[in-house]
Specification:
The protein has 226 residues and is an alpha/beta fold.
Length: 226
């Protein structure tokens, strides 16, 4: 059973959540579930003069019940990961609402070279918040449940190269493990192409899980000859 409000249009979903695009504005798709109820509340939000995370927190605290005895699970699907200020605001919100658990899926990492943003994500994760890069299953879930897709197009979710998701997942591992950045992103304004470049160091090879390195092609699978 679900309770839904405004869905976003297909073009909005592609504009906001394509991992290759560096759109300035942010979009939030969220689900809220209270206690043992099977009812899921879904809604969407966009950045205004403030970031979408702050808008959600203020909306939630002003409209929702504050019964600390009833558990509340929240799932966010964000087009950009939280900045350091939003990470701090999220931690403060959760400390004031111990009955709330939060899982965050992000399409892209926001200014991931900035040390404050990296520390903010680490602090957020260390406080108990799950932060992951959106994969194919999350994109399909969002398409089905948050997008005003044309009739008969439920299975027509846009597909994006898995490598982009893998590169962001690699960089998120670097952030979690307090490693220096290994993913550099640049954009050529003339043709609007986004370029991803990996600059791994020895510490990355020594610390990052091998399956992540294999997925990005940074290492090759070992072969045993008989």
């Amino acid at each position: 059973m679900t309770s839904e409000k405004r869905r976003i249009e297909p073009w909005e979903f592609e504009a906001f959540f394509d991992p290759r695009e560096l759109r300035k504005e942010a979009c939030l798709l969220y689900e809220i579930k209270w206690g043992a109820s099977h009812k899921i509340w879904r809604n969407t939000g966009k950045s205004t003069t403030r970031h979408v995370e702050v808008n959600f927190i203020e909306k939630f605290t002003s409209e929702r019940r504050s019964d600390s005895l009833i558990s509340c699970s929240i799932t966010w699907f964000l087009s950009w990961s939280p900045c350091w200020e939003c990470s701090k605001a999220i931690r403060e919100f959760l400390s004031q609402h111990p009955n709330v658990t939060l899982v965050i899926y992000v399409a892209r990492l926001f200014w991931h070279m900035n040390q404050q943003n990296r520390q903010g994500l680490r602090d957020l994760i260390n406080s108990g918040v799950t932060v992951q890069i959106m994969g194919v299953s999350e994109y399909c879930h969002c398409w089905r449940n948050f997008v005003n897709y044309p009739p008969g197009k439920e299975a027509s979710c846009p597909t994006y190269p898995p490598l982009w998701m893998t590169l962001y997942a690699l960089e998120l591992h670097c952030i979690i493990l307090s490693l220096p950045p290994c993913l550099k992103i640049s954009r050529r304004c003339q043709n609007q192409l986004t370029f991803f470049r990996l600059t791994p160091q020895n510490c990355h090879y020594q610390t990052i899980p091998p399956h992540i390195l294999l997925a990005t092609g940074l290492i090759q699978p070992s072969v045993t000859w008989r």
